[in-house]
Amino acid sequence: xxxxxxxxxxxxMPARAQTVDAAVALAADVSRSIxxxxxxxxxxxxxxAITSKQFLAVLASMRHGAVALxxxxxxxxxxxxxxxxxxxxxxxxSAEVFAKRLLDAPRSSSGRTAIGDGIDFAVKRLAAAKxxxxxxxxxxxxxxxxxxxxxxxxxxxxxxxxxxxxxxLAIINEKTGGEFGTYxxxxxxxxxxxxxxYHDNVIGGPGxxxxxxxxxxxxxxxxxxxxxxxxxxxxxxxxxxxxSAPGAGDR
Length: 251
What we know:
The protein is α/β, with parallel strands linked by helices. It has a domain at 1-10 and 19-136 and 219-244: Rossmann fold. 38% of the residues lie in helices and 21% in strands. It is built from nine helices and nine strands. The protein has helices spanning 3-6, 36-50, 53-61, 92-104, 115-128, 152-161, 181-188, 194-201, 219-232; strands at residues 18-19, 22-29, 67-74, 80-89, 131-132, 136-142, 164-171, 209-213, 241-242. The strands form two sheets. The protein has a seven-stranded mixed sheet, sandwiched between helices. The chain has a two-stranded parallel sheet with strand order 1-5. The termini are far apart.
């Protein structure tokens, strides 16, 4: 899929490089296991996190007081879309502009779950971001294991080799049972748990961590905590640890 065809909304790239504290590609799962209510809670959670007093206060305390954000949605092979392109957020006004674009955009797709392809897409968007920064982050949120596309661990390892950190938000989706069948339940509840799957296959790089939430209602606060940790690194767990299981250990 051509990048231009996937862009729904977003301002033009900056004419000259700006210096930011971090460039963060927010990569959200919109596969078929996420219904419309959950999709709305996810979008609203991202918007609330970006405009939260907690995030903006930490941002103001950083050296450059700015972060570059890009919002990507991904599902199966070829189903990756830039919903809001690179935007520099440095204050409430710029945060609210980003949040409004995000909330106004339609859902991009719904399909299988190709986490590796989503990571590859985010890597390309980071490469296209003309910002001066020492930190590049891909923030992957999802409710299931990869069941399509290339191996997640391969995509992760190649991204980490480029100096990118990948963090994860594992969403425990309790709706994926019963009428959805045994297969879908196994997809969202793998052996050892989704958090363990993300820990072993998705996250990587300096300071990488995975946070688990038990339902989409808790998404906004979890995303706020995650963004604060990603941008500041002050409260981030040790490398490859888990916020909800601090003793998970290094890979």
